[in-house]
Amino acid sequence: MVGSNDRSKFRLTVRYIVATALLLVMVFPYLYMVLSSFAAWNQVDRKLIPTSYTLKSYIWLFTGGESGVPRPWLHAFFNSVFVSLASTLLMMVFGVMVSYALAKVKFRGRSFVNNVILFQMFFPAIILLVPNFLVIQKVGLYDTYWAMIIPKAVSLWAIFMYTNFFKAIPTAFIEAAKLDGATDLQILYKIMVPMSKSITTVIFLFLLMERWTELLWDMIVVRSDGMLTLNVLLSQMFGPYGAYPGPMYAASVLLTLPIVIIFLIYSKKFKEGMQFSLK
Amino acid sequence: MGTKNNNGLGWLFTSPYLVFAVVFFVVPLAWSLYLAFTNWDLISPDYQNVGVANFIKALGSPAVRAAFFVTFKFMVVFVPLVTVMSLVVAVLIQGLPRFKSFYMVGFFLPYLSSGVVASLIGKGFLSYSSPINVFLREQFGLKINWLGSPFSALMVVSVIIAWKFIGYYGLILTSGLESIGKEVYEAAAIDGVTETKRFWTITLPLLYPAIYTTLILSVGVTFGIFTEVYQLTGGGPNFATNTWQMEIFNQAFKNLQAGYASAVAIIASVVTFISIYIIRKLLEMWGKRNGWV
């Protein structure tokens, strides 16, 4: 039996080595991005692992380099934070509200609302790009924060996830609370939401990630420099003729780092929630 | 009390969605169906009804025809790539007795990336004097214009998108693998079934629901490709990466042909809906025929 034990030990070691190697390959683009953002400019995209380092790329980002006119990177960063948080929070609040009604409130027309949501979920959203832009323009929201927040204030996916989760919470809890005189709003925020912490983490992170990295919509509904999100500014500054690879990597770090940090903070809860939501 | 209807509360709590659905779904839908039959240019106050002219023009346009085929080309490259790689990731980390969550979190990190950032890194990595190109030139005399030739541009974009999704799908497949009981494998081991055979006869069939999920998700991804293509190729070279979103964006917001773009969008939606429906049915049939469902 000792031989077979050795063999499985060997196998496990190989498995760890292969997994680690693959993981390194997968996170290498991130490493490359960080290293390149600190690399001396004559080494950016010239060396896989740069040998000399500088803060020049970051300084350029905030001073504008030789032109002396800094692009609004910090401003764009705060635009991104504001827009992403506002729109994600609205998606969460509305998601919880709508789902509570769909899962736990009996009302005439419930199955109708359910069917409309399902229909919209399976409807190819591609058709809505142009007319949604026109709606925003028509109501006078073009080039405002609202243009980036309101059309992304409701998430069908969040409603779908919460509805399924709420359905699994026993109605007895709600009835007991009602006997104690709790209102529906209290039940929602004191029972339903606290009971769905892990799935809330998953929904919040997925919505935030998606919102943070949105390009197309934020690009078409906003025009002035001071309104652009970081993702859009990055895309515009380093398009086909971008000549400053160092600052490009620095700006990429600026965009990537916050979302990675938030994810790592919540990663444990995220894992629990994922295990639940995938079952 | 539990069976009493509460109509006011129900409608009140669902009203955010209902208002949203009217403003950003029903009205836009009707609007684009109307616009598709006009020649509106997004700016001028007056425009004419042009009947089905936009649709006829779209069906004859090389860019639209390219969008139709490009989506399926992406599917043929991207879907198998992301499926196989996420299976590899899932099988690798599923059996790890320690540090499993470390690997899970690590593999998931690319999913957090912005398509813009991923594209810029990819572009820098493949730029003319980048280490990989210098190596290929000096060692093999290979001069590859990665984004300049149709085939490699398609491959580069596919790999960049796959990079993002491998860890996420790997996570879905891992939890699929975990739901398979150990007893099944133990029984098979006693019966002397080899490991390779076990994968094909036990793992894969029991994993079918999870694989079905990732396949449907990844097919959906191919119909929505925009950011990477916009950032890297603009749909080129010669429409080789011109996706539906790219084409609609170009027509509506670059050429300012709102009417024509709406017609293209309607065609795109119909193609998307039918394709996904057929792919779903085929996958279900495939599962049923093998007795996996």
From TrEMBL, chain A:
Protein name (Swiss-Prot/TrEMBL): Sugar ABC transporter permease
Span of domain ABC transmembrane type-1: 77-266
Major place of residence: membrane
Family affiliation: Belongs to the binding-protein-dependent transport system permease family.
InterPro entries xrefs: MetI-like, MetI-like_sf
Organism superkingdom: Bacteria
Membrane topology: Multi-pass membrane protein
Keywords recorded for this protein, A-Z: Cell membrane, Membrane, Transmembrane, Transmembrane helix, Transport
Localization (cell): Cell membrane
Membrane-spanning parts: 12-32, 76-100, 112-133, 145-166, 187-209, 248-266
TrEMBL record, chain B:
Residue stretches making up the ABC transmembrane type-1 domain: 68-279
Protein's UniProt name: Sugar ABC transporter permease
Ranges that cross the membrane: 12-37, 66-93, 105-126, 146-166, 206-226, 258-279
Protein species of origin: Gordoniibacillus kamchatkensis
PROSITE patterns according to UniProt: ABC_TM1 (PS50928)
Keywords attached to this entry: Cell membrane, Membrane, Transmembrane, Transmembrane helix, Transport
One Pfam family this sequence matches: BPD_transp_1
Top-level taxon in the UniProt lineage: Bacteria
UniProt membrane topology term: Multi-pass membrane protein
Coiled-coil residues: none
Record-linked InterPro entries: ABC_transporter_permease, MetI-like, MetI-like_sf
